[in-house]
Amino acid sequence: MRINLEHPEVQKREERLNSISGFAGTARELCDKSNSGRLCDKKRSFSQCLGCSSGNAICQSIMIQDTVTINHAPLGCAGDFADFNFTNRVNRGFRNLEIKNCRAISTNLEEKDTIYGGGEKLRKTIELAYERYNPKAIFVTASCASGIIGDDIESITNEAEEKLGIPVAYISCEGFRSKLWTTGFDATFHGILRKVVKPPVKKQDDLINVINFWGSDIFTDLFKRLNLRPNYIVPFSTIEQLEKISEATATVQICPTLGTYLAAGLEQEYGVKEVKAPVPYGLKGTDNWFRELGKITGKEKEVEELIAKEKEKIAPKLKELREKLKGKRAYVTAGAAHGHSIIALLKELGLEVTGAGIFHHDPKYDCDGGARNKCCNGSTESLNHVVNTYGDVPNFHVCNKQAFELVNNLNRIKPDLLIARHGGVSVWGIKLGIPTLLVGDEQFGLGYQGIINYGEKILQILNTKEFSENIASHSLSPYSDWWLSQPANKFIGGK
Ligand code: SF4
């Protein structure tokens, strides 16, 4: 699939990848439907609130150093600023950066702007951002309001770019454009590819782009053993760093849901090879991922040595953890590919995965399979890898954070453990008396040592059973007995 950088707006995921946000069945059924092209989105006849692309776009742009993010929107849409500024402040330590706030401004679109247009307000805000912060680039994120009134953000940003002499990028993340909030990641990466990345001056053979969120640094040490260097993008990178990502020899990603668009764009435009193996969670995934990286960088021998050493190092502890965790029943709720990675980790540790509420599903990625096909036994994405390697997962829901469906499932399945990637959903596990692990640092479970990290953390969490039950005994549920006795998928595909 060709990524069209001529166009100012990113093509949304439901059109580009046929992504869906509603499904109930088993993981294997979902894979079979995806692989045979028979997957269609099942709409909900009732839905609670959900996220929007704007938040996902902002979470990638706002933490780039020496830049300003302007949210061209009513003030309410800037609620994301506080969330991601918190993430920024907490996680800057992982990169040894001074703790400071993000730089973000709202144009504060008001009722009269929806009648007369908000273009002038945006022009003035860009000038103010430049004068106040002297940034190296400005990102302008769109909103439902700016999209509905039809402000020409592309022209305004292009004019400003010419006048100021720095990249000023339009990020097409209007909330109503896409039902998949992950389209927001793609929108920011589209803006970066169009306006920030420069053609390579000199290729850097040891440089590996690592598309990640904001987790801990585990790659510097691992890559050093292969004479490679990680280049963490996009949060916390500088504009100078992003300009040169075209010079890297390969791109890896810790989550294809996050990075598929940027990785594919870099390969298409600048020949930076994307490691297309499923992400390195669990033994087989990690083996495949390192082997693919070794092939691209010509380090096959070093990679085999690293794999052997790491596996030998963790083997006794892994055996011990598997014995302790055998038969424990877990439920997972997380974004698509990261949720699949957590399932792989749990199954590797010997837990039974009794169900999953995964926020959306991409039947394919932007790379159109390629080498990823080989690595996943004929599949094109991470869920196929999990099902082919570890077996099926029952009660597999594609559920875009619909709390009422999650509570119904947890109440019925009653797992020993809930693993959640997002704070807003983890609270439901505790309210039901289920020991719950909130996964903040996505790098925590990555690679060989990550399996051990996860296993040890799960043992700690399982010991919080009494604490969780205590909280549950003091919690009131907003859901009626009627709803809890219904099938969780009652409104999926309904009228
Ligand atoms: S962009 Fe739209 S959906 Fe997103 S926060 Fe603003 S109003 Fe809500």
TrEMBL record:
Domain Nitrogenase/oxidoreductase component: from-to ranges: 59-462
UniProt keyword Oxidoreductase present: yes
GO molecular function, one term: nitrogenase activity
Keywords: Oxidoreductase
EC number: 1.18.6.1
Record bears the keyword S-adenosyl-L-methionine: no
Class in the EC hierarchy, top level: oxidoreductase
Pfam family membership, one: Oxidored_nitro
Protein name: Nitrogenase
Phylogenetic classification of the source organism: Bacteria, Bacillati, Bacillota, Clostridia, Eubacteriales
